Amino acid sequence: MAEAAALGSAARGTTAPNPNVGCVIVSADGKVIGRGATAPGGRPHAEAVALKQAGKRARGATVYVTLEPCAHQSERGPACSDLLARAKPARVVIALKDLDPRTAGKGIKRLRAEGIEVKLGAGRAAAAESLSGYLARLNLGRPRITLKLALSIDGKIALPSGESQWITGEDARRHVHLERSRSDMILVGRGTYLADKPRLDVRLPGLEERSPRRALLTRGEAVDGWETLHSPEDVYRLHDVNDLLVEGGSATATAFLSADLVDRILIYRAPIIVGEGKSSFGYVGLDAIADAHGRWRSAGEQGLGVDRLEVYERVRDA
């Protein structure tokens, strides 16, 4: 299941609004005979890819899949639960039940009706992380929102003049491009757009085609080639976006944090002190230090050359 989750994670940013599922098929003698992830654009699904590799060897095998196989018919392809029913594996191990009402237990029921053993819940945590954008959209009605910031040791994003290129080094910037490749859409504010004219593309060898759609947070006129959000709450109309990356400056970061719409923060911290300069955030609606505690948890950190990445996740009620 860990391998299935890794395959699904690699497809993030390419499958929306479909989930980025991963699937691995193992023969009765323990050999991997099929691997698959949801293809760019959402079809074929991971199970279809893996079953095509396995062929007739799938009969009697064990299928590991990060999300319940779909049960609804589509003009773009057959239901995966039907494909599995025809392939007749001995067992299907599913990490997460699908919340999509078109499937929601129907895929599991279909498999069991064919006499296929179904095990649910194995590798749940890794699969949930892999599918976090899709799950956020179904649970919250909006994409999973990641806020990215490049900061100095003292929490500044720019000099008083506004100069901010480059606070972090090349390794950190490459990691940002990797995060972009895993996102369906990337957003900045009008101020960042006017000051920097950012390309917001992916400039990593082999991943150039993974550049996300570009969005602008502005109350002003639309810009050619950019989608427009007039307020952070407009994320609720992004029904075809699973993962949204917010890269805009202090005003945009503050707007999304004030609206409590940020699920994850990536802080790329450089070993420099700016002193007087532009702060990362403005007022985010807190009037007491006690109210700030318990809202965020550390989700890891790593070195990126001379810089350091800190990851924080929003703590929300289940």
From TrEMBL:
It holds the Pfam family dCMP_cyt_deam_1. The keyword Ribonucleoprotein does not apply. CDD domains: Riboflavin_deaminase-reductase (cd01284). Keywords: Hydrolase, Multifunctional enzyme, NADP, Oxidoreductase, Riboflavin biosynthesis. One of its GO terms (molecular function) is 5-amino-6-(5-phosphoribosylamino)uracil reductase activity. Coiled coil: none annotated. SUPFAM superfamilies: Cytidine deaminase-like, Dihydrofolate reductase-like. Residues 1-119 form the CMP/dCMP-type deaminase domain. Pathway: Cofactor biosynthesis; riboflavin biosynthesis; 5-amino-6-(D-ribitylamino)uracil from GTP: step 2/4; Cofactor biosynthesis; riboflavin biosynthesis; 5-amino-6-(D-ribitylamino)uracil from GTP: step 3/4. Its EC number is 1.1.1.193, 3.5.4.26. InterPro entries: CMP_dCMP_dom, Cytidine_deaminase-like, DHFR-like_dom_sf, Eubact_RibD, RibDG_C, Riboflavin_Biosynth_HTPR. NCBIfam families: eubact_ribD. In the N-terminal section; belongs to the cytidine and deoxycytidylate deaminase family. PANTHER family: 2,5-DIAMINO-6-RIBOSYLAMINO-4(3H)-PYRIMIDINONE 5'-PHOSPHATE REDUCTASE, DIHYDROFOLATE REDUCTASE FAMILY PROTEIN (AFU_ORTHOLOGUE AFUA_8G06820). Converts 2,5-diamino-6-(ribosylamino)-4(3h)-pyrimidinone 5'-phosphate into 5-amino-6-(ribosylamino)-2,4(1h,3h)-pyrimidinedione 5'-phosphate. This is Riboflavin biosynthesis protein RibD.
